[in-house]
Specification:
hpI Integrase, Chain A, disordered C terminus, DNA polymerase, domain 1, mainly alpha, 8 strands, single chain
Length: 412
């Protein structure tokens, strides 16, 4: 038994204004008929009536293609074809980090679900099925699922503009999951050393060994405040241990290209890490993988999470507050800024070290860190250290060891 004919009204915006057309199947073929423009009197209601009339004629076998029939230049593309072409078309306009994020949403989430769908088969019901599937998987936070849905809506919006769809089925709040405001986490001073000591590399059989690369990377995030992208792009030619500074040459903003002062503890940490292997080439990445390529954000985040779990076991055994499980690599940057403020540095210097164009932004974001710490009773102790002779002596040499306890280790 033959399937009943189906179709839809297509609305396109162009130089002539809003144009109405019909897309439907007739006698086993895909047809596309232009009706006319809004200026010519066509309305959505009239277009729907004409669609019903055409489908009725197709069912009776009396419909014949009018002379004005427009044959589409190619078959309706699949989502895989359209999305891949879309990404490659806009890739030159995107920053590398943005392109990487778009590629991740497509490759790992959207394409596995929608790759065989033709664009016309992606309905509101299918979008909801995708959302429910992601919830059942349980691997992504609601905000991340919504992020992939936003990318889907972005792609399908272009499909609407091209006339492949009459409406965007992924648009609207009802397609999104409910989210809560994430808790922003950072490290307390007494949590730094346990975290770095917990950075180990696992081996088969349950054994572990120090992971010097990840330890140095996390220490640089804590004591230099680099963004994760800046950390992964850092090269040895950018690190001047003798002068006590590093240069951030690749950043997502112009203000992010900057020089950062190295704390003595970090200088020792990087020197030990560099001496652990053969002398690196100046152009080599500081935190490269064994193949010499930059590490990935995902891998760094996983290793940080594992280190937090190990560090919390030690902290709880010592009766200290555990590290928030929501700590991310960006939380190390918050730690750096909060320590600078607690030391008494002015907002202009902090913004310069962070790579913020506006000191007000740095002050607004990180004042909350100080306020929360003082409300928890740590502020008075730290302020006392800052103002006391012990802190004054440490401040003379920029020595943060009393505050941040990053142990110096002799080269092996």
């Amino acid at each position: 038994m033959a399937r009943p004919p189906t179709g839809q009204v297509v609305v396109r915006e162009g130089k002539r204004g809003r144009t109405y057309a019909l897309r439907f199947r007739a006698y086993g073929r895909r047809e596309y008929v232009t009706l006319g423009t809004a200026q010519e009197g066509w309305t959505p209601q009239q277009a729907e009536v004409e669609l019903e009339n055409v489908l009725a004629d197709v069912r009776r076998g009396i419909w014949r293609p009018p002379i004005s029939t427009v044959v589409e230049p190619r078959p309706e593309p699949t989502f895989h074809e359209f999305a891949s072409e879309w990404l490659e078309g806009i890739r030159p306009e995107l920053r590398p980090r943005t392109a990487e994020d778009y590629q991740w949403s497509l490759t790992h989430h959207l394409l596995p679900f929608f790759h065989r769908h033709q664009l016309g088969q992606i309905t509101i019901e299918e979008v909801d099925r995708y959302r429910h599937a992601k919830v059942r998987e349980g691997t992504l936070a609601p905000a991340t699922v919504n992020k992939t849905l936003t990318r889907l809506a972005q792609i399908l919006e272009v499909a609407v503009e091209y006339g492949h769809l009459s409406a965007n089925p992924a648009r609207g709040r009802r397609r999104r999951l409910r989210t809560s405001t994430p808790q922003r986490a950072w490290l307390e001073p007494e949590q730094v050393q346990p975290l770095l000591d917990a950075v180990v590399r696992g081996h088969r059989g349950g054994g572990t060994s120090p992971d010097l690369r990840t330890r140095a990377l996390l220490a640089t995030g804590i004591c230099a405040g680099l963004r994760i992208g800046e950390l992964l792009a850092l090269r040895w030619r950018d690190v001047d241990l003798a002068a006590g500074r590093l240069t951030v040459g690749e950043s997502k903003t112009e203000a992010g290209v900057r020089r950062v002062d190295l704390w003595p503890e970090l200088r020792d940490e990087l020197a030990t890490y560099r001496m652990d292997d053969t002398p690196p080439r100046p152009a080599a990445f500081v935190f490269a993988t064994s193949s010499g390529k930059p590490d990935t954000r995902h891998n760094v985040a996983k290793r940080l999470t594992r280190a937090v779990v190990r560090a919390n076991a030690q902290l709880e055994a010592e009766g200290l507050s555990p590290i928030a499980p929501t700590l991310t690599p960006h939380g190390l940057r918050r730690t750096f800024a909060s320590l600078l403020y607690l030391r008494g540095e002015d907002p202009v210097y902090v913004a310069d070290q962070l790579g913020h164009a506006d000191p007000k932004l740095a002050l607004r974001i990180y004042t909350k860190v100080i306020g929360d710490r003082r409300r928890r009773g740590r502020g008075e102790r730290l302020v006392g250290v800052i103002r006391g002779a012990e802190w004054a002596q440490a401040g003379t040499s920029d020595d943060f060891s009393e505050l941040v306890s990053i142990p110096s280790r002799a080269p092996r």
